[in-house]
Amino acid sequence: MSDDADAVTDGGAVAESESAAASGGSGLASLRERDDFVVIATAAVLVVFPFLLIDVFGAIGDLTGFSIGGYSGLPSLVLIYGIVVIGFNLLLGYTGLLSFGHAAFFGSAAYSAALFSQVVPSPLLMVVVGTLVATLLAWPIGFVSIRRSGVYFAVLTLTFGQALYFYALGPGAWLTNGDNGFSDIAAHGLFFGAIPLEAPLTPLYALNSYTVIYAFTAVMMLIAVWVANRIINSPYGLIFEALGENEERVEFVGLNVFRYKLMAFIISAVFAGVGGTMFVIHEQYIHPTTGLYWIQSGDFVIMTVLGGTGSLVGPVLGAFIFEYVANVISGVSLPGIGPIGSLWRFVLGAVFVFIVWVFPRGVYGAAEDLIGLVTGGGGGDDGSEPAATDGGEAE
Amino acid sequence: MIPLQVDIASILLNGLQQGAIYALLGLGLTIILGTMEFLNLAHGALYLVGAYVGLLVFRETTLTNGLLYSFGVTTIGFDGGFLAALVVVPIVGFGIGLLMERFVAEPFYDRPETDQLLVTFGLALIVEEIIKNVIGGNTFQSIGPQTIFGFNVSQPVALPVVGLFPSWRLFIIVIALVIIAVTWLAIERTDFGLVVQAGTRDSEMVRLLGIKINRSYSLVFALGAALAAFAGLIGASIQTLSPQIGTDRALLPAFLTIVVGGAGSVRGAIAGGMLLGVIVSAMTQTYSQWAQIVLYLFVALMLIVRPEGLFGSGEVGE
C-alpha cells in the first residue's frame, strides 16, 4: 500500500517538474534531448531494419539451411502493426483498459480509405480520411464503453466491433463487397503518382529491400513513436498511467476520470486508424475477417502483451515477434518434425501463455529485468517508470 | 402466407432450442465467474472439446488431413452412439475442469483480471490449434442420431400450432432444460450450492466458518466445464463441427449471455440465454442478414441501459 502511495506522489512530482520545464525552465533541454534521443534511435532502427530482416537474416538462412529471412513486404507489415499497438498500449498498458474491439477502428479506417481512394487516389489523403473515420467512430463507442469497466468494457467494445464485422459481411456488402473482400483500391504513388509505392527506394541493387512504401510506413512509424513518446512523458500521459494504477485516487484528486479515459480510448483508435489505412495501402486488399473480426482485435492484444505493456518499445517488439512467427517461422522446416506451417499459431499461443504466466511485463520487460540483473541493478534506473506501473498491478 | 401465430410459435421454439445452448454455456461461465471471480476465456474451448469428444465417441470419422492423417491414421472414433457420448462428454469436461482449476485458474486467482483474461485467451488459442492440427481444420458433419432411447428422432414431428418440427431438436430442448433445472436445483437447494452461493458473496467469510471452499471451487469449476462440454455435444448434434466453433458459437454467446443476465447470476444466465436465443431465432426467420448485428447491438444497448443485467448485482466482474 505504501508503495502505491509513493508511486502516485512520485508521479505528481514528475508532472509538476515537467510542466515547469515546458514553460521555459532549465529542464527544457533535458526533455528535448530525451525526445530527440527517442526519435533518432527509432530512425536508426528503421533505417537498418529491412536490411537486417531481409538481407542479414536471409544470408544466415542460406548458410544454415533454415529459411529465416523476411520477404520484402514484411518490414512494412511489422511497422503497420507496430503503429497500431503503440496506440493500443496507451490504452492497455498505461490506462489499464483491455479492449477487444480495436479491429473496428483498424478495419473501418481501412475500408473508408479504400473507398475514398476511388475518388482521390492519394495515399496521404487516404491516411487522413481513414484516421478521421476511425476517430469519429471511436468517440461514440468510447463514450458508451468507458462507462463500464473490467469485463463489461471488454464485452462492450467487442459487441460494437462484431456488429460492424457482421455488417460489413452481410447487409453492408454493397459498400464493402462482403465476403469477397474489397480489392478496388486505387491508391497511386506518392507526390501525385510520381513515385509508385512498390518501387525500390534507390536504384542500387544492394538496397533492394527498401521500397517506397517502406519509407512511407517508416515515416508514419516515426511520427507515431514521437507522438506516443510526447504523450507518455507529458502530464497528460502521467494521468493515463495513474488511471491504470489507481483510478479512485485520480478521481479523489479531482480529475475527470471519464474524460481522460475517453481521450486514451480515442488516441488509441487514432493509431489503429493510421495502421488500418497503411495496411490497406500496403496489402491492396481488405476483408471483413482481416479488418474487422474480433480475432484481429485479439491479435493486437497478443502483440502488445507479448512484447510488454507499459513501455514504448515493448508492443512494437511484440508486433515484430508476432508477424515474424506468422510469416517466416511458419515456413521453416524443422529436422524430424517437418514444416511448421499451420502450427505457427499454436507456437504463438504457447509462447503467449508462457509470457503471461512467467513474465507479465512481456519479452521487453523480461529483457530489461535480465539486463538489470546482469549489470547489478543498473537497469533498474532505466525501467523505473514501467516498474512503477507493474508494482501497482501486481498487488 | 403462413399465419402469424405459426411464425411466433416456431420462433419461440427455435429460440428455446438456441437459448438452451446459450443458457448451458452462460450457466457454466457464470458460476465460475460468480464463485471464483475468475474470467474464463477458455470457456469456448471447453465447448469445442465437448463437440469433438462427442464426435469421436459418436461415430467413426474419416480423416483427410492433420497430423494424425500424416502419421497414417485415416479413421478415428468408436462408433459408440449418442447415448455413450451423452455420458462420456460431461465426464471428460468435468475432468478437464478439475485439471484446469488446479493448474491454470488457481495460480491466477490473486492476479489482475486482465492476466486471467489473457492467459485463458492464450489457452483457448492453444486448444483450437491442437484440434486443428491433430484432427484437421476441415468441417465435419453434425452428429445427430437416428434413434435415442428407442425413439425414432430422424423424422419431424407434428406439433399443435407450430406444425412440423424436427423431433431431434425437440429432444434437445427437453434434455437441455432438464440439465439446466438440475444445475439450478443443485445451486439453489443443496448444501453444496449454499456454500457456492455464500462464496459468491464473501469467500473469506466462508473460509473463516471452517468450510473448505477450495474444494467447492474445484467442483464448481469442473461443473462449469462439464456444462460447457455438454453444450458442445448438443450444439454438435445439430450444427457442423470445425475448430472455429469454440469462439464463434460458444465463447462470444456465453459472454453475451452472462452480460445480459447479470454476471454471477444463475437465474440471469438462464433468462439471458433464452432471451438471446429468441432474438437470434426471430431475426434469423425474418431478416437473417441482420441477426448477428441485432444480437450484438441488443447486448450493447442492454449494457448501457441496464448495466447490472437482468438479475445481476453489478458487483461481479467490475
Automatic annotation (TrEMBL), chain A:
Alphabetically ordered keywords of this record: Cell membrane, Membrane, Transmembrane, Transmembrane helix
| One term under GO cellular component | plasma membrane
Please name the GO terms that the record assigns under molecular function.
branched-chain amino acid transmembrane transporter activity
Q: Which PANTHER family match?
A: ABC TRANSPORTER ATP-BINDING PROTEIN, HIGH-AFFINITY BRANCHED-CHAIN AMINO ACID TRANSPORT SYSTEM PERMEASE
Where in the cell is the protein located?
Answer: Cell membrane
| The species this protein was found in | Halobaculum gomorrense
Mind telling me which residue stretches traverse the membrane in this protein? Answer: 37-60, 72-92, 97-117, 123-144, 151-170, 207-228, 262-281, 301-322, 343-360
Which CDD domains does this entry report, sorted A to Z? TM_PBP1_LivM_like (cd06581)
Q: How does this protein lie in the membrane?
A: Multi-pass membrane protein
Protein name per UniProt: Amino acid/amide ABC transporter membrane protein 2, HAAT family
Q: Which InterPro entries has this protein been placed in?
A: ABC_transp_permease (IPR001851), LivM-like (IPR043428)
UniProtKB/TrEMBL annotation, chain B:
Q: How does it sit in the membrane?
A: Multi-pass membrane protein
**Pfam families found in the cross-reference section:** BPD_transp_2
Q: Give a yes or no for keyword Cell membrane in this entry.
A: yes
Identify the GO cellular component terms for this protein: plasma membrane
Task: Give GO terms for biological process.
Answer: amino acid transport
Note whether Transport occurs among the keywords. yes
Q: Which GO terms describe its molecular function?
A: transmembrane transporter activity
Which keywords has UniProt assigned to this entry?
Amino-acid transport, Cell membrane, Membrane, Transmembrane, Transmembrane helix, Transport
User: Where is the protein situated, by its record's location annotation?
Assistant: Cell membrane
Give the matching InterPro entries.
ABC_transp_permease (IPR001851), BCAA_transport_permease (IPR052157)
| Domain of life according to the entry | Archaea
Transmembrane portions of the chain = 20-39, 46-69, 81-100, 168-187, 217-238, 250-281, 287-305
Write out the similarity annotation: Belongs to the binding-protein-dependent transport system permease family. LivHM subfamily.
Its recorded name reads Amino acid/amide ABC transporter membrane protein 1, HAAT family
Source organism per entry reads Halobaculum gomorrense
